Amino acid sequence: MRSRLFLLSTLVLVGITTVTIGAPVEETIEAIKAVEIPQMGSGNLTLNRRFISGVPGLPQCPNADFLLLTSKCLDEKTIQEICVFPANPEVRSESNTECPDDTTCMDFLTDPIGGQEIPFALCVDNGSIKEFRKDRKASYLCKPYLISVTNGIATFSIIVYDAHSNPAKVYAIKFSSGNQSGTRYNTYNYSRIIDSKKGQKIEVCIETETNAEIELAVMFSYLDGSYISNGINK
Ligand SMILES: *[C@@H]1O[C@H](CO)[C@@H](O)[C@H](O)[C@H]1NC(C)=O
Ligand SMILES: *[C@@H]1O[C@H](CO)[C@@H](O)[C@H](O)[C@H]1NC(C)=O
Ligand SMILES: *[C@@H]1O[C@H](CO)[C@@H](O)[C@H](O)[C@H]1NC(C)=O
Ligand SMILES: *[C@@H]1O[C@H](CO)[C@@H](O)[C@H](O)[C@H]1NC(C)=O
């Protein structure tokens, strides 16, 4: 079953419209397009190697007899994948896939329908990623985006990288979109499946423990729809 989204009415930072004396200033929000993956968005898709093979920038098992179990971003340019031999699930392999030029590694979660949430990583085209940077003295930074999906569901990914392109833990990563919101603490990534529609606003925030001038890049992207896992590790 899909985990229901818990509601918090406390994120009041959403949708603040700046009003100067007499003149309302319109908030411009950047629109961002969904990551384009063939066959995404058409319902219960299975995350396994047969489905994704041949699509560049996706984790690949080194041996065609293996199925992808899970994957994650080792750094901005590298996916690490764990593969399993279906006939004997005890047999596993670990390998790395380098992201193609002009792509960045992003962490996602599968839909738990029929199984459990499984982390997987994709090399996402930079054109489908929005980024904001923390390079000044601020411990709380937010950025709103507009997302658009076709079937009512989006899977978003937020990941924080440091100046050396490595995942960087922060005190909290938050999102809020309409009546849905959530927070993950002490993490460098956050992925969730949310109800969505065309042109929906989502706000992404990070909170760090200090306001020191640490350089961080906060990346955001989303899939049109959701994957389910192949259930191999049930
Ligand atoms: C996806 O799977 C769920 C649960 O097995 C099922 O209820 C739903 O109808 C499926 N959706 C599609 C588009 O096949
Ligand atoms: C795309 O992003 C990666 C990693 O974030 C970066 O190394 C690369 O220079 C970017 N390419 C372009 C064309 O912006
Ligand atoms: C995020 O990071 C954690 C490690 O803190 C990892 O276990 C998890 O699989 C990652 N991916 C997602 C999508 O949460
Ligand atoms: C959240 O908002 C959506 C539409 O924006 C609505 O359909 C849904 O009922 C709302 N859920 C709750 C629990 O208020």
Average pLDDT level: 79
Which CATH architecture is right?
Sandwich
Q: Which CATH class applies here?
A: Mainly Beta
The distinct bound ligands, ions and cofactors come out as:
2-acetamido-2-deoxy-beta-D-glucopyranose
The radius of gyration is 18 Å
For the sheet with most strands, the description reads: 5 strands, mixed
Number of domains: 1
According to CATH, what is the topology?
Jelly Rolls
The total count of strands amounts to 16
Identify the strand order in the major beta sheet: 1-9-14-11-12
- Please work out how many helical segments DSSP would assign: 1
Strand content: over 45%
State the shape. Answer: globular
Q: Could you estimate the helical fraction of the residues in percent?
A: under 10%
Class derived from helix and strand content: mainly beta
Low-confidence stretches: 1-20, 39-46, 48-56
- What is the element string, with H for helices and E for strands? EEHEEEEEEEEEEEEEE
Q: Gap between N and C termini, in Å?
A: 15 Å
Signal peptide: 1-22
Protein name: Secreted protein
Keywords: Signal
Organism: Diversispora epigaea
